Batch of 4 targets.
Target 1
Amino acid sequence: MSDTTTDAPASYRSAIQVGHAGFAQQLRAEWTKFRTVRGWVAGLAAAALVTVLIGLVGAHTVRPTCEDPNQPCTGARGPGGEAVTDRFYFVHQPLTGDGSITARVTSLVPDGAKGGLPPWAKAGIVLKAGGRAGSAYAAVMATAGHGVRMQHNYTHDAAGSPGTVSDASPQWLRLTRSGDTVTGYRSSDGARWTAVGAVRLSGLPSPVQAGLFAASPPATESTSQKFGGLGNRGSPTRATGVFDHVVLSGAGSGDATWRGEQMGGPADDFASDGTFRRAGGTFTVTGSGDIAPAVGGPMTAGGQTIERSLAGTFVGLILVIVVGATFITAEYRRGLIRTTLMASPRRGGALMAKAVVLGAVTFAAGLPAAAAAVLAGQWLVRPGGFEFPVGTLTELRVVAGTAALLAVAAVLAMAVGTVLRRSAGAVTLVFAAIVLPYILATASILPAGPSQWLLRLTPAAGFAVQQNMPQYAQVDSDYTPAFGYFPLPPWGGFAVLCGWTAVALGAAVFMIRWRDA
């Protein structure tokens, strides 16, 4: 890339009068410069356009269809709008109004499977708002590898006590409901109880379904990430939990009305339905599946995630980097930087004014483009029975974060351009710092460890702001960049990009103050 290809905006006359200028005047002058150069305006308009168009092409090209129009392709949606897994075997009866359910778990073992259970296989008690997949719930349970836990509404998990259950070391569990508040307890002897947690389930109906459940997620095999390839996932499992001392207290409860039901639909090719047997006061419940967030695969709209609709961000990012770099290097190349600095004795203030104007106009262009790309992507996949399985707040964060990502990248390019005074070098360096690490990390080119460090330490961490699904402690999965997961939370990754930009701006201020124009 040569300077002749990137330093070609239309010429302009400086709007700054020689002499002292306050920061407000500097802002106005920089805005006048920007809007009067057609190349810069066209560059941002093109960045916004390709962000939308490439997202549309990607969504349309891979758009799947539902085999069964009566079943939602995205699976269950939780109370917050997120994709969830809600498949387990449930032995239940209605509980009207306030009340409680108590049970002792004496065993949790694999059902006819070789080897052990996955660590998050579970058996316990649950209060559930209804039979609809994705409905609100609270549960306290014994797990195969994480002790007693209390979980609610799929995404929330609280630790109780460590250890596994057995005849010699059973776990007593209890859930009590008071209005919309559900409190979970555990005990080792049924006499002394310890609270695990208390949660509020807004709008919890009366009655709820209360009972025993068993679930076992797929066992994940060890995955080795090699150069250019990924390992494989595991196989289905079933867990059997044994309960006794089952007591349901409250209006509408009765010992003779227990009903066994497979939640989440009939068996498919991946897992089989559960069962239960009752012998006197002992219940043996077998089930597969999970009650948890869905973190990948067909649950995420058959691969149709919100990030896919923003695939055009990469091309748009290149264009805003070019605009950002030339916003300062064009002045150096044409000698107009002297006029700007003569009008502003505080050179750092002049550079900050450029940064504010550039960041603001880039954000203003990127925000409607990101929103349009997401809305258009939803419109394209919805006829096939798909939706982006995210909540409203997540969707807003992704859209606003994408615009902020573009804006900060433009300012970073401007800062690097100030230091180098060459647009080709600035564009190349910023592109290599942001886009190249992202490609190396997410395209299975590097092993998982180095990929995660790239997305922690380089400006490419800023792409985390587009991630729609976090890592969940209660779900074992391939949380690697190749599967779309960032090692930093969305705003944490964005903060890394901002940190690099702040350092570059600091260097630019130093250079513009101590170096001749």
Note: The radius of gyration is 29 Å.
Target 2
Amino acid sequence: MEHSLPLISTLVIAFSLALVFGFIAERFLRSPALVGYLLAGIAAGKYTPGVFADASLANQLSEIGVMLLMFGVGLHFSIKDLWSVKGIAVPGAVLQMVIATLLGALCAHWFFERSWGQAIVLGISLSCASTVVLLKALDVRGKLTSPDGRIAVGWLVVEDLATVIILVLLPPFASIMIPGEPGSAARLANSDLAIVIFKTLLNAALFVALMLVVGRRVMPWAMAQVARTGSRELFTLFVLAVAVGVAYLAAEIFHVSFALGSFFAGMVMRESRFAHRAATESIPLQDAFAVLFFVGVGMLFDWHILITAPLEVLAVLFIILFGKSLAAFFLVWALRYPLHTAIIVAVSLSQIGEFSFILIGQAAGLGLADQHLINLVVAGAILSIALNPVGFWLDPRLRQFMTSRWKWARVAAMREAPFEALPAETDPEKLQDQAVVTGEGPMVERFAHALDESGVPVVAVVDDEGSAEALSQKGVSVILGDPSKDETWVSAHLHRAKLLVLLDSSAESLRTAEAARRVSPELPIVVAADSHGIWPEVDMQKVTFLNTLDAAARLISAQTASAMKAGAVMGERVGPDAPDPAEVQAADRQEDDPEAKKSRDEADIEAAMAEEPHVEKKPRPVRRLANFIAVLRRKRPADAAPEEADEAEVKAEAKPEPKAESRRDEAGLEETESSAQAVPPVEKTADATPSGDKPQASAAKPAP
């Protein structure tokens, strides 16, 4: 079938068939949509009757999908995250590739009667998993940023680096395995092998150094300049140009893969404060081109091999599903990681994809593979990708099966990765009537630390290992895990908590709240964010909303008013007359000293009795907000009756005001806190007032 517009016809055929088969897979076959995309590719390929798309164009379009997906992963994956999993990702990935290569080579040589050169190439092609498939699988299940997801992604990054080196070493390997035969001009003499390896490692090192030294400074600055124009189109164009352009230049200049180039581009762009916006803007492009990737894989499949060589296909599939997975499982288990981590990594690697096609394709050009081997690899890729979701579905059932039968599995299930549970020496006072804080971004670290400094027992729940490490160094009890999972809240002792603070109002916060309520059904929840988000439409009891912008503005205004009345200067000095940072750190250390703190408290009491003005250092807005939550917990218990609250406020009003000017700031804070109690609750209960009316009596002072 001839096409005058091959690009347009390829896109039309690919998207149309992907829509139809994806809908059938989701609606009728109860399978993931990507299974439908693979079937669409088979239907659009040259091995099936009817219309067919341009396979070479589809392959190039799928490469763009790989670039955008890896760029998106880099935006959520920092250098610290990659470095934190090096202890398991590097040895695990290398050993797993060696084991899978040996299994494939022995099987191909003994049972398929292939030469050792072809057998080794087949084994290498079966050893590297598909990054695209893994990212989609982890993202759909909400595990992409979890500790297990980071290990799996880091594992595949190491595999990608190893594959780049293997691609460079294939020509000299072909010269060794089939000497004397005419082949590609790219073949090298054996004496040049060390030079090739050195150049490959040098190019990769230069690219990484360039991205970390120059890219981390230039790219975030450029993104900020584009964002300041206010043009959404320019911002999206910038994201697309960086993701594709850096990948292309990395491949052309430094001879690394497109996937690695775009991945490191995303990691350096993560330094920008617009990284979240860039990730959001690129999602539609990622989804569209990811569809083309799976369609392109299906177009390579010659289904006749299922009839002509079914045993060989089953052998290849067995190595991918069980050989690789078992090797990865026992490697993770031997490195003393928890059972769930070993299973997730094993399931994540039980498939092959884009790098396998690149390897077997280059091997075919060097005479190390024929069309039959290519069909075997493509068949193994399609079948393993289609069966990969079944592995994730079996994950909890495998854990239950193994722990019920083997002692070593029960021991592995009780292992805990760093920060997955509170240490045994945690102060018991922090595990009773504590405030539990969760959310994303630096606000969680600052808020939890400020709340801990105010004397309130607090436990922070984060899904970022860097944040967990930072909080732990500050002495805050922290749990590293997925907030939407019940076991995370069990580890945080949520059933003993008095309050849960969600520093987020997105759809993800709803899943977090639902998981928390399954562990502690009656726990009061405070949603602290700059907007209501989805919460006005949520039917959940004992949930209140605190606008962080309004609360910060009120607290800062009270601080400003009290400072003006006292004739003091609020805030910290900046500029030429700012204090020396070393002196500030020394003062902070002295402030943490219990004896020094006791002396300061005694001095404050004497100053107040003498009615001498005393200007103290004003805390920051984040500290003020933490104090506000602390007062909210002490003065507004969730089960207090409205009448009791009113009587308490009347008594509080009857108390005399402090006379010392050093307490005026605290008086202004109390006024702000009282006015802030009038924030209406999010949930719609029977005694809730309609929108726009006055709030409940328990949340505000009675009218005179």
Note: The two ends are 85 Å apart (CA to CA).
Target 3
Amino acid sequence: MDFQFYPTPIALAHQAWHKFKNRNFIRVMDPSAGEGHLLKGRPASMEYHFRHRDQPFDVCEIDAKFHPTLREQKHTIVGHDFLQYTGGAWLTHIIMNPPFAYGVQHVLHAWDILWDGEIVAIINAETIRNPNSAQRKQLVRLIEQNGEVEFIENAFNGPDAERPADVVIALVYLRKQADIAADITGNLFNDLRQERQSAEGLAAGFKEEQQLALPNRSIDNMVLAFNAAVSALRAATFAQAKATYYASLLGQTMEQTGATSESNTELGAAPTKNETRTLTLDVMSVLHEGYKDLKNRAWTGVLKSTSLKDRLSSQAQQRLTAEFVNIQQLEFTVNNIYGFLLGVIEKQGDLQIEMACDVFDSITKYHSDNAVYFKGWKSNDRHRTCGMRLRTHRFVLPRFTAFKSELDSGSYQRLADFDKVFAMLDGKLEPEVSLVHVFKTHYRDLCSGARISSSYFDVRYYPGAGTIHFFARDKAIVDRLNRMVGKQRQWLPPNDRVVNDVFWQQYEGAEKLDKEIREEISNIEKTKYRNHFGHCGAVGSLASSDAETRLAAQALVAEATTTVLQKHDMDYELQLSGTGAHGQQILQLVA
């Protein structure tokens, strides 16, 4: 789609920012942020007017491809389509360069959602000069009564214009000032948008949920409940503001003025201009914080209702939670909920791969004998890589500690991650007999040396050492994990690549060659590296957090693997080049 993206030139951005008369920038929004040009164009001279030098801005942007850039700039994405956004009561400033075709709609919508603040908008001059529609006439009246306009030629034709346009623009300034007397002592925040509610009350339209999934009815109910909560928040906030307003008319208490002194406050005197402004800012602050809390609750409810987190490993949950911070900034609307759920569905495969890699790494990290090595597909002379695969018969994991005659919570979490990943590899939501169940019901037997079966493993527990020995009951599922991780990390060739048999021979034979490869690793480490890897050794350094150390260890293990494979005429690169015995046979057949 053409979203009419015309980045704001820096000179025009400066002019727009200088239009603001109130320089106390508390909460600023750009409703059509694009790549953030208008926000980056804030003059340096204005920085001290902000609470923080790198203060984030609220932004809307309908073109999702710009969202990563906006997040890198630390902005808070609160919505996609600004015309659907309603949470502007706590904003103090709105600055915008909307699509020219919808400029009048954006400015009028900004005016509607703003309670007390300023608007600066860059729109097509024709919108003002040719008021040929009801909306254009309404905007002209607003400017006449509440602001001003400046017409600028060639604003998008200067040397800093990324997308030149031969257009005259109107730089519109509007000031909307809250009327405390009307808003607090009269109508409550535009009658709390009563037109959205029926006589049945704030939660009108809510129906009891009859289904277990997250159907349309459930989403509608969530949004209705959220809107009701926001309306109640506004009512409560303004009710408190009323109480404060009326109390100020009565003057101070005896304790405040002193029992013997006379108060200088005239009974019934209206608050001063400064007191009124303070009251306005207090109301906006309470609304803003309360609205953030309600959004947090609502979005968290969506995440819990999908039961998604129950199916993810602990690390996958942490990654989703980190991403969810961005989702929570969006307005809580039906469209945004569907967008979030669609994104989760599209990322389901990636989440499963990440979970598989997490479990693979947890198995190979603490016990080097749990993995064997083969020559990875991406090996080359410049940067050789070694592939890793789990042993299909048995692996050992340490650090399973007990507390009050059972495993501690961290140990159960690790076992639960195993249950989720191996059930996923088996095409199931959960195992019939989980590892967690085995340890909760057979803990004493396990401590006595018993070997107990879960759906995917027989396990033995050694409480003194805190180790568990896992014996795979289905080697095919372990191999499935090996291949999933191997393809993700490019240790294995892509599915669309035809690979000669020698590659798979060395892959399948990795366990048989493991002892020989480890001896070669030790020889190379002693002769070439001389304790370079410390007490961890090259094998232990494969999981190092230091990238340079990790790459050096990979290169050493790859060299050792290649040496052993060449001894057995199983180096697939030599076969492909025609150097090995199998390669010579292939070349002869081709000739």
Note: The longest strand covers residues 117-124.
Target 4
Amino acid sequence: MTATSDSAPASDAARNEQGSVTAVTGETSSATGVRPRAANGRFLPADKSGDELPPDRFLDREISWLQFNERVLQLAADPDMYLLERARFLSIFASNLDEFVMVRVAGLKRRIATGLAVRSASGLEPRELLDRILSTAQNLMSTHARIFDEQVRPALAEEDIQIVGWSDLSDDERARLDEWFDEQVFPVLTPLAVDPAHPFPYISGLSLNLAVVLDNRKTGSEHFARLKVPPLLPRLVRITEPEGEDLYSARFVPVEEIIAAHLDALFPGMNVREHFTFRVTRNEDLEVEEDDAENLLAALEKELTRRRFGPAVRLEIEDGMGDHVLELLVRELGVTPREVFRCPTPLDLRCLGTIADLDRTELKYPPFVPMTHRDLKRVESAKSPDMFSAIRIKDVLVQHPYDSFSTSVQAFIDQAAADPRVVAIKQTLYRTSGDSPIIDALIAAAEAGKQVLAVVEIKARFDEQNNIEWARKLEQAGVHVVYGVVGLKTHCKLSLVIRQESVGLRRYCHVGTGNYHPKTARLYEDFGLFTCDPRVGEDLTKLFNQLSGWAPRSKFSRLLVAPASMRSGLVDRIEEQIAHAEKGEDAYVGIKVNSIVDEQIIDSLYRASRAGVQVDVLVRGICALRPGVEGLSENIRVRSILGRFLEHSRVFVFGPDGRDAVYLGSADMMHRNLDRRVEALVRITDARHVADLVGILQRGMSDDYSSWHLAGDGRWTRHHRAEDGTPLLDLQSVLIDEHAARRRGRRG
């Protein structure tokens, strides 16, 4: 349940100056361009009927993202939620907000400073938007701290899970921690004085620090020092190991409390008058000039080094910090008073992930083990399914994490690497782990003499350094590594395996909605289609040729590809539904995405609603669309589902029961996806799969299932109980049960 907010910071002004973006095909399509703005920066009305659309028809994307994180916080505050999962949601909220500040707030500040910021589509002026963001974030952080301190922390204590301070420890516990400090902590600490001979030190982003005020015992003069808490130390130190009757007891003390209790050892001859914890968030958004792909790797590595020294955009301090210390920090860090966030200790509650990982199964979601998909189970051998046999029989649609990643996607690549009849493997990689079996399989395939192409997106936000490392590892093994198209991120999730068979070369394909990452595949809800349909094989061959070489005028059969044809293709599908409605026929548009911001897509949905088309939007995160507004969007409903798994799949349904078209793929409805990324949606043709995808969307929109509902004024309301107070169904839990039943032979 992370935000995964890896948005590019390009200004709206810069995007508008570009007009339409040169497509991956090398052609320029006016259909993919962003609509022009009026002089005041507002998007011009776009209703083809001639009726003007209201200028205030868009919700603000930044405020909408903060509302998404507020929904995460509501799960943490839910007393019916498993206790350790509540702690995990508190940790997720903190991590999400860190990323938002590092990227979105920092990007907005930079655009304001450089004069590139324009009024947002929601109508807010840049400085007005920044003020609202900071105010909303302050309120959310206060609520976050209050939920931890007043609800979750006491509930954990009732279960013998405690986060305590130094003053709460017994003499024996302090003695043990004294020894641990002397052996493991003291040698790695580096106190840094601040005086005329010692300038104020650089404070790294997201590091936890102690501001220490000292008195010289001889002269009585006051001094200031900064002490960084080494990030390699455990943030929460477990006081005793579980044993005997205390097997389920867990007591932790924050490491900064232990360090603070031993400050005298770090400053001998000085009197420690007071100390406070603080934390800085810096601009960590990348700016890389992509003059040519050969220099991209070097340029990115240089920018990663520069990222560490980005300007401060937020200062978190503990509540009791005195004004004299705060004034010093504000002056030296260059933050404004509005960017100072006072918080109760402990700061940085990402550390609650340690608590959530405790082995207390009764306080967590029930155990769940993904199993082999039923269509793959039929051809499963002792080790794994025969993927090629299964795909030749019929297309296979998997849904992670309910269907196992290891016996589907991973098995597909593993078998392709080991099969002597496979002659080539082509793969896009956006995010994956450094120890991924996918990487190992591609290396093994190259070493076995197969042609292996890896299209690596090394600019995947916050994974850049990891991606650089394993891209070089692939190159050293003989894999053809390319970095996609200059100016575009390669975000599509594609695998193509070419195999020599009795009928000739056959192409086996995987098109997914999620990354080739075995760890996130256990936490993210995603779909993946396996097929050997020659049309998809031809489409993927053309697209990989565009990514690795030159194929400027390719056309596709079952794919919609961004930035060339995706926006225009989806708008055309929406227009078809409008035409049906105008003829008095049933019409429907259903969209399941992470975010929907693109104004042209939203305006098309408004036109559809005005024409009488029922529009359903199931969105996890950001939504700039206003549903249920009279005369604009009465026929549009917006729902959001958050829970055990992060809803990550993207599905597009056109026509009642998907009778006109159904697509799935990698793209959200955002400018970055439609204009600045290579994305792919594949059309689903198997009637079973159409029914499955439509069913997921319809259930997500159903009032029988727990979800959040968006109103036209931008407010989200949680609906998780029926009128009689009974809990509504949890869609993810129902899907777990249904997949288990299918495996037992009860269904399917």
Note: The CA atoms of residues 282 and 313 lie 5 Å apart.
